[in-house]
Design goal:
The protein has 583 residues and is an alpha+beta fold. The protein has 15 helices and 32 strands. It is 29% helix and 29% strand.
Length: 583
């Protein structure tokens, strides 16, 4: 860093005022005041991505009407690249910058503003002075009429809920802000005050949520031995149909379906999401791959360890519910089977190794296309499976004395608390080996860097379980395509690798019109009476032209695993089972 800039930046004071004069048109107006400048030019940047969501989203695309002024005069401000504006500040101690941000993308990682509320995903709202990420700032919010509350993990200034302080930009960018008339309630757990801000209504039971969310907090805190927050905020956006979550240092944003809380599966799915995102306050926000901090907000931050950061968290989201007594052992095993089925029914599992799926998240995971199922896997799903296998390995090898929990606590204590940095691939492997008591080269070669089919019965066998494919005896024929109903037209949306459709040339976007001359009306019955090996004629409409394809049907290779207990489980297996499932 230039020494002149460094010294000048030390005295800089930064504040923001956010207003919503046209909330109904989805705009947030930002005024940024910077004082204490001693430099000739000032570069102002907007982040291009948000931590936890590994895609360059180009937040500057939503910015308009950028201007700068000082002492009543307009300053020269030139945009010099996609996310940076250069302001000439010769002889000026302070400047005022104004810009508008269009906010109309519903997700946990992007800002949304309308007349009912404003959700500010801070990486897409607040610009920062280049080379001053360490600087503190103050955010003052002027609410739209009818908005009475602010929910965020940023601390209040002088008891004013509409004025908040950020110690530095990493924390500002890790602290989303909800402004509106949200339903706010709270609970205490593990010595921490929790706030839950419900946006959009819903059939949730506040008292039940307080109890169950507290159970999750206590159980997760027990894994790491401490809860590093004094206050934590859940921002929950309830939609007709919603989902997803994004973790932050002292808060999280969740998407949910407003009417799903009253049914068992919907409520359990919500608690699983709560467990996932809350577990992140340790795993990835503090215990993190070395590439993920300090962040470079201008470009991708690559790591091959998202299978740990996200995959292990996906594993814990369900095992935590079991350990907290929220779901039964059978409920957990059903969830584990669901993860296995999700992985094994994806042809891409034979193509993309787990570590590669982590590294390529920036170009593949958030940009899926019609062929993604054939070329890749989710580091969430296979990472969760890897977490389960390693947990069972450690429990078995130590005869129930240790588990993956001990690895997570050791890594947290060693790298976050003691070394105050992220871990490397090698260091995390060493942490696993420390508690497994053996070299894990073979495991990594097969399941992390390789494409070896997972030996589920070996690992589940440690706990006296086995998997069984309920479809093993099925001889159902299939084209191997997914079909969507588009105004009565049967449109092919996916063609699975190695399937009959793949081999014999059915294309995505083909309109399926007839099989053996019979018009297709009901997709579910179109192969009635057929068997694998049968040769059929498939008529499609391709780009407005009729095409007839001879297709040889193949057996449907889809699996549907369930996990069952062994009738003759040994004392050692029962010991592992007890430790694993908290029996």
């Amino acid at each position: 860093m230039d020494n002149t800039i460094s010294k000048a930046a030390g005295a800089v004071k930064i504040s923001y005022t956010v207003t919503f004069p046209e909330a109904q048109a989805h705009y947030a107006d930002v005024e940024m005041n910077i004082a204490g400048l001693k430099q000739n030019t000032l570069d102002i940047k907007m982040p291009v991505w948000t931590p936890g969501s590994y895609l360059v989203r180009e937040f500057a695309k939503n910015v308009e009407s950028f201007s700068a002024g000082a002492n009543g005069k307009v300053l020269v401000a030139q945009k010099i690249d996609k996310n940076c504006w250069r302001i000439h500040t010769d002889g000026l101690a302070s400047v005022t910058i104004k810009y508008r941000v269009y906010c109309f993308e519903i997700s946990v990682r992007t800002s949304f503003v309308d007349a009912s509320h404003g959700f500010l995903s801070t990486t897409g709202i607040f610009m920062y002075p280049d080379k001053m990420l360490h600087q503190p700032s103050t955010v003052h919010i002027v609410p739209y009429p009818g908005w009475t509350k602010v929910s965020t993990s940023l601390e209040e200034v002088n008891g004013d809920p509409f004025t908040r302080h950020a110690p530095n930009y990493d924390i500002l960018f890790d602290s989303p802000i909800e402004v509106g008339s949200q339903d706010v309630f709270g609970f205490d757990a593990a010595g921490v005050k929790y706030e839950v801000a419900m946006v959009g209504g819903g059939n949730y039971d506040k008292e039940k949520l307080k109890v169950d969310m507290a159970k999750i907090v206590v159980q997760e805190t027990a894994v790491f031995g401490e809860n590093p927050n004094k206050r934590y905020v859940f921002l929950v956006h309830n939609y007709l149909r919603g989902g997803g979550g994004l973790e932050h240092l002292s808060s999280t944003t969740l998407g949910a379906s407003r009417d799903s809380y009253a049914n068992e599966s919907g409520y359990r799915n919500f608690l699983s999401l709560v467990a996932h995102e809350h577990f992140h306050l340790w795993n990835v926000k503090r215990l993190r791959p070395i590439a993920l901090g300090p962040f470079d907000y201008d470009k991708e931050n690559y790591t091959s360890d998202l299978w740990i950061a996200e995959g292990f968290t996906a594993y814990y989201q369900n095992i935590i519910l079991r350990h907290a007594g929220i779901i039964t052992p059978a409920g957990y095993l059903e969830a584990a089977a669901g993860e296995i089925n999700g992985l094994e029914n994806q042809p891409g599992a034979k193509i993309q190794p787990l570590a590669e799926s982590s590294f390529d998240a920036w170009i593949k995971a958030y940009r899926p296309n019609e062929n993604s199922v054939n070329t890749g896997i989710s580091y969430y799903t296979k990472g969760a499976v890897a977490g389960m296998l390693l947990d069972l390995e450690i429990i078995n090898d130590t005869k129930g004395k240790s588990s993956l929990d001990d690895v997570m606590k050791y890594m947290y204590d060693t790298y976050y608390k003691l070394k105050k940095r992220g871990y490397t691939d090698v260091e995390f492997k060493q942490g696993l080996e420390k508690f497994a008591g053996k070299n894990l080269d073979d495991f990594y070669k097969k399941y992390i860097y390789g494409l070896t089919p997972v030996d589920y019965n070996k690992y589940l066998g440690y706990a006296g379980y086995k998997i069984t494919d309920e479809l093993a005896e099925s001889n159902e024929p299939t084209l191997g395509v997914t079909i969507a109903n588009n105004n009565g037209r049967k449109i092919v949306t996916t063609v699975l690798r190695g399937s009959a459709g793949w081999i014999d040339g059915i294309n995505v976007n083909d309109e399926l019109t007839a099989i053996d001359g019979i018009p297709v009306t009901d997709v579910s019955t179109m192969l009635n009476g057929k068997k694998p090996g049968d040769k059929i004629s498939v008529a499609v409409n391709r780009d407005g032209l009729p095409v007839t394809l001879p297709v040889t049907l193949l057996r449907n290779n889809k699996v549907k695993y369930k996990v069952d207990g062994l009738a003759d489980a040994t004392p050692q297996q029962l010991l592992v089972r007890k430790k694993w499932l908290a029996l």
